[in-house]
Amino acid sequence: MGFRVVVLGDSAGYGYKDLIKADLEKDDRIDEVIDLGLHEGESALYPNLATAGAEMIARGEADRGIFICGTGMGVAMSANKVKGIRASTAHDSFSVERLVLSNNAQVLCLGQRVIGAELARRLAKEFFNYEFDPSSHSKANVDAICAYDGSLEE
Residue by residue, what is the 3-state secondary structure of 84-142? Predict the structure, then answer.
């Protein structure tokens, strides 16, 4: 079974959102792409977009998300307000790898004003190369994060 992915971009990120969405729709690892982002001429507050996407993931309606704003930081902070969600900005391959392998994060956040389009597309693709190993030494750290926000499932 493939990933169900929420993609979104605010007024500073919808361009990359559209590029990444097109890539994901061609990716055999992806079963469904859910577009919650803006399109040209639309406006909305990025915290509302990011929390809506994160809530879909928290409810089990999607597996992962790629959220894009100007820097990636605003959507990351917003998504992390949702119980059980682990989101972070990552603008290099090693960070994307560690986002999943060390932190079991469900949301990759990117900044359209920070990195080039081809790098953003590559990082989005790489995000689906990794699966968290619950038997790894990183599980204790992820459990500590989840215990803090009350989302730890025993």
Answer: CCCEEECCCHHHHHHHHHCCCCCEEEEECCCCCHHHHHHHHHHHHHCCCCCCCCCHHHH
* Cβ atoms of 57 and 93 closer than 8 Å: no
Which residues form the catalytic set?
69
DSSP 3-state of 2 = coil
Whole-model pTM? Answer: 0.96
Sort 1 into a burial class: Cβ within 10 Å, 0-12 / 13-18 / 19+.
Answer: exposed
DSSP line for 13-47? THHHHHHHHHHHHT-TTEEEEEE-S--TT----HH
Neighbouring CB atoms inside 10 A of 115's CB total 18
| Tens-place pLDDT, residues 34-66 | 999 998 889 999 999 999 999 999 999 999 999
- Identify the bridge partners of residue 65 per DSSP, sorted by sequence position: 6, 107
